[in-house]
Amino acid sequence: MTFSTKIDISKLLIENYTNHRVVKLSSLKEYFSEPEKVDEILKERGDITVYEYYEKIFEGEGVNLNFGLTILYPGKVGKEYFMTRGHFHEKKAAEIYVGLEGQGLILMQSEDGRVEWQPLDQNRVVYVPPGWGHRTVNTGKERLVFFFAYPSDAGHDYEIVRAKGFAKLVLEESGRLRLADNPKYVRARGF
Ligand code: PAN
Ligand code: ZN
Protein backbone atom coordinates (compact mmCIF):
# COMPACT_ATOMS: atom_id res chain seq x y z
CA MET A 1 0.00 0.00 0.00
CA THR A 2 1.35 3.41 -0.86
CA PHE A 3 0.45 6.51 1.08
CA SER A 4 1.51 10.04 1.82
CA THR A 5 1.11 11.99 5.01
CA LYS A 6 1.54 15.55 6.24
CA ILE A 7 3.37 16.80 9.25
CA ASP A 8 1.15 19.28 11.01
CA ILE A 9 3.38 21.32 13.26
CA SER A 10 0.51 23.32 14.72
CA LYS A 11 -1.19 20.12 15.89
CA LEU A 12 2.14 18.40 16.42
CA LEU A 13 1.23 15.17 14.87
CA ILE A 14 1.90 12.87 12.06
CA GLU A 15 -1.23 11.40 10.54
CA ASN A 16 -1.48 7.61 10.78
CA TYR A 17 0.90 7.31 13.69
CA THR A 18 0.86 3.94 15.46
CA ASN A 19 2.68 4.85 18.65
CA HIS A 20 2.67 7.88 20.96
CA ARG A 21 5.07 7.84 23.86
CA VAL A 22 5.34 10.44 26.62
CA VAL A 23 8.58 10.46 28.63
CA LYS A 24 8.34 11.98 32.10
CA LEU A 25 11.15 13.48 34.15
CA SER A 26 11.00 10.79 36.86
CA SER A 27 11.87 8.09 34.32
CA LEU A 28 15.00 9.99 33.27
CA LYS A 29 16.48 10.48 36.73
CA GLU A 30 19.49 8.21 36.25
CA TYR A 31 20.34 9.74 32.88
CA PHE A 32 21.13 13.18 34.28
CA SER A 33 24.50 13.88 35.88
CA GLU A 34 22.87 15.33 39.00
CA PRO A 35 19.94 13.01 39.83
CA GLU A 36 19.34 14.79 43.15
CA LYS A 37 18.41 17.89 41.17
CA VAL A 38 15.76 15.83 39.37
CA ASP A 39 14.16 15.24 42.79
CA GLU A 40 14.13 18.99 43.46
CA ILE A 41 12.29 19.67 40.20
CA LEU A 42 9.85 16.82 40.86
CA LYS A 43 9.04 18.41 44.24
CA GLU A 44 8.56 21.87 42.76
CA ARG A 45 6.88 21.13 39.44
CA GLY A 46 5.66 17.54 39.64
CA ASP A 47 6.42 14.87 37.08
CA ILE A 48 6.69 17.08 34.00
CA THR A 49 6.97 15.79 30.45
CA VAL A 50 10.51 16.11 29.06
CA TYR A 51 9.71 14.78 25.60
CA GLU A 52 7.15 12.87 23.61
CA TYR A 53 7.11 11.27 20.21
CA TYR A 54 4.64 10.10 17.60
CA GLU A 55 5.83 7.25 15.45
CA LYS A 56 4.62 5.33 12.44
CA ILE A 57 5.96 1.83 13.00
CA PHE A 58 5.74 -0.78 10.25
CA GLU A 59 5.53 -4.48 10.76
CA GLY A 60 5.59 -7.20 8.18
CA GLU A 61 7.51 -8.01 5.10
CA GLY A 62 10.64 -6.23 3.91
CA VAL A 63 12.63 -3.48 5.56
CA ASN A 64 10.39 -0.45 5.89
CA LEU A 65 11.25 3.01 7.12
CA ASN A 66 9.73 3.88 10.47
CA PHE A 67 9.29 7.60 10.90
CA GLY A 68 7.93 10.10 13.34
CA LEU A 69 8.03 13.36 15.17
CA THR A 70 9.64 14.16 18.50
CA ILE A 71 8.87 17.17 20.70
CA LEU A 72 11.60 17.83 23.26
CA TYR A 73 10.65 20.52 25.77
CA PRO A 74 13.05 23.19 27.00
CA GLY A 75 14.55 22.98 30.47
CA LYS A 76 17.57 21.98 32.48
CA VAL A 77 18.51 19.73 35.37
CA GLY A 78 21.19 21.82 37.06
CA LYS A 79 23.39 22.90 34.16
CA GLU A 80 22.40 19.99 31.94
CA TYR A 81 19.86 20.62 29.21
CA PHE A 82 16.76 18.45 28.79
CA MET A 83 17.56 15.55 26.49
CA THR A 84 16.33 12.21 25.20
CA ARG A 85 17.57 8.97 26.73
CA GLY A 86 19.63 8.14 23.66
CA HIS A 87 20.30 4.70 22.23
CA PHE A 88 22.18 2.55 19.78
CA HIS A 89 20.40 0.70 17.03
CA GLU A 90 20.77 -3.05 17.53
CA LYS A 91 21.51 -3.52 13.86
CA LYS A 92 23.99 -1.08 12.40
CA ALA A 93 21.33 1.15 10.89
CA ALA A 94 21.54 4.82 9.97
CA GLU A 95 18.91 7.44 10.74
CA ILE A 96 17.87 10.79 9.31
CA TYR A 97 16.71 13.67 11.51
CA VAL A 98 15.14 16.85 10.13
CA GLY A 99 14.83 19.89 12.41
CA LEU A 100 11.41 21.58 12.23
CA GLU A 101 11.33 24.01 15.15
CA GLY A 102 13.60 25.15 17.99
CA GLN A 103 17.33 24.92 18.72
CA GLY A 104 19.25 21.88 19.73
CA LEU A 105 21.83 19.32 18.83
CA ILE A 106 22.36 15.62 18.33
CA LEU A 107 25.15 14.12 20.37
CA MET A 108 26.62 11.05 18.69
CA GLN A 109 29.14 8.53 19.88
CA SER A 110 30.76 5.74 17.89
CA GLU A 111 31.33 2.27 19.27
CA ASP A 112 35.03 3.07 19.65
CA GLY A 113 34.26 6.12 21.78
CA ARG A 114 34.54 9.04 19.34
CA VAL A 115 32.09 11.84 20.12
CA GLU A 116 30.67 14.21 17.54
CA TRP A 117 27.70 16.52 17.55
CA GLN A 118 25.65 18.33 14.95
CA PRO A 119 23.28 21.25 15.40
CA LEU A 120 19.58 20.53 15.00
CA ASP A 121 17.41 23.47 14.02
CA GLN A 122 14.76 24.36 11.47
CA ASN A 123 15.24 22.80 8.02
CA ARG A 124 18.50 21.11 8.96
CA VAL A 125 19.00 17.48 7.99
CA VAL A 126 21.31 15.47 10.23
CA TYR A 127 22.67 12.09 9.24
CA VAL A 128 23.32 9.63 12.05
CA PRO A 129 25.68 6.96 10.66
CA PRO A 130 25.27 3.24 11.37
CA GLY A 131 26.86 2.19 14.66
CA TRP A 132 26.69 5.61 16.33
CA GLY A 133 24.70 6.05 19.53
CA HIS A 134 22.58 9.20 19.45
CA ARG A 135 20.86 11.53 21.89
CA THR A 136 18.99 14.75 21.17
CA VAL A 137 19.44 17.82 23.39
CA ASN A 138 17.28 20.95 23.53
CA THR A 139 19.71 23.86 23.98
CA GLY A 140 17.10 26.57 23.34
CA LYS A 141 14.33 28.31 25.23
CA GLU A 142 11.47 26.91 23.11
CA ARG A 143 10.46 23.36 22.31
CA LEU A 144 12.61 21.42 19.83
CA VAL A 145 10.60 19.57 17.20
CA PHE A 146 12.12 17.21 14.67
CA PHE A 147 11.24 14.51 12.17
CA PHE A 148 13.15 11.21 12.09
CA ALA A 149 13.25 8.10 9.90
CA TYR A 150 15.12 4.82 10.36
CA PRO A 151 14.96 1.25 9.01
CA SER A 152 12.17 -0.77 10.62
CA ASP A 153 14.51 -3.64 11.53
CA ALA A 154 17.02 -1.35 13.31
CA GLY A 155 16.02 -2.23 16.90
CA HIS A 156 16.80 -0.01 19.90
CA ASP A 157 19.39 -0.72 22.56
CA TYR A 158 18.91 1.61 25.55
CA GLU A 159 20.92 -0.42 28.03
CA ILE A 160 24.46 0.69 27.11
CA VAL A 161 23.65 4.38 27.35
CA ARG A 162 21.61 3.90 30.53
CA ALA A 163 24.48 2.10 32.22
CA LYS A 164 27.43 4.23 31.05
CA GLY A 165 26.04 7.50 29.74
CA PHE A 166 27.69 9.40 26.93
CA ALA A 167 31.32 10.54 27.23
CA LYS A 168 30.19 14.18 27.06
CA LEU A 169 27.60 16.20 28.95
CA VAL A 170 25.83 19.09 27.23
CA LEU A 171 25.75 21.98 29.70
CA GLU A 172 24.83 25.62 29.90
CA GLU A 173 27.50 27.62 31.69
CA SER A 174 27.37 31.42 32.02
CA GLY A 175 24.59 31.41 29.44
CA ARG A 176 26.66 29.46 26.92
CA LEU A 177 26.65 25.95 25.56
CA ARG A 178 29.55 23.77 26.70
CA LEU A 179 30.35 20.12 26.10
CA ALA A 180 32.07 18.82 29.22
CA ASP A 181 33.64 15.45 29.97
CA ASN A 182 31.21 13.21 31.79
CA PRO A 183 32.97 12.30 35.07
CA LYS A 184 30.79 9.20 35.51
CA TYR A 185 31.52 7.82 32.05
CA VAL A 186 33.68 4.72 32.05
CA ARG A 187 35.25 3.82 28.76
CA ALA A 188 34.48 0.19 28.07
CA ARG A 189 34.70 -2.13 25.15
CA GLY A 190 31.84 -1.66 22.75
CA PHE A 191 31.04 1.96 23.64
C1 PAN B 1 14.13 8.68 17.63
C2 PAN B 1 14.09 8.63 19.15
C3 PAN B 1 13.17 9.63 19.82
C4 PAN B 1 13.20 9.47 21.35
O1 PAN B 1 12.91 8.32 17.15
O2 PAN B 1 13.66 7.35 19.49
O3 PAN B 1 13.57 10.93 19.49
O4 PAN B 1 14.48 9.31 21.87
P1 PAN B 1 14.87 8.00 22.71
O5 PAN B 1 14.52 6.83 21.83
O6 PAN B 1 16.35 8.10 22.92
O7 PAN B 1 14.08 8.00 23.96
C5 PAN B 1 15.18 7.68 17.15
O8 PAN B 1 16.35 7.95 17.20
N1 PAN B 1 14.74 6.49 16.73
O9 PAN B 1 15.58 5.53 16.32
ZN1 ZN C 1 17.57 6.12 16.66
Could you walk me through the main structural features you see in this protein, from its secondary elements to its overall organization?
The protein is mainly β and 191 residues long. It contains 2 helices and 17 strands. The strands form 6 sheets. The chain has a 6-stranded antiparallel sheet, with no helix packed on it. A hairpin with a 4-residue loop joins strand 1 (7-8) and strand 2. The longest helix is centred in the first third of the chain and has 11 residues, at 35-45. It is globular, with a radius of gyration of 16 Å.
Helix and strand topology:
Blueprint lengths: L6 E2 L4 E2 L4 E6 L10 H11 L3 E8 L8 E8 L3 E2 L2 E2 L6 E2 L5 E7 L1 E8 L4 E7 L3 E4 L3 E7 L5 E8 L4 E2 L1 H6 L3 E6 L2 E6 L10
Antiparallel strand pairs: 1-2, 3-4, 4-5, 5-14, 6-7, 8-15, 9-12, 9-14, 10-11, 10-13, 16-17
Bound molecules: 5-phospho-D-arabinohydroxamic acid and zinc ion.
Spell out the key features of this protein.
mainly beta, 3-stranded antiparallel beta sheet, binds 5-phospho-D-arabinohydroxamic acid, 191 residues, globular, 46% strand, single chain, binds zinc ion, 17 strands, 6-stranded antiparallel beta sheet
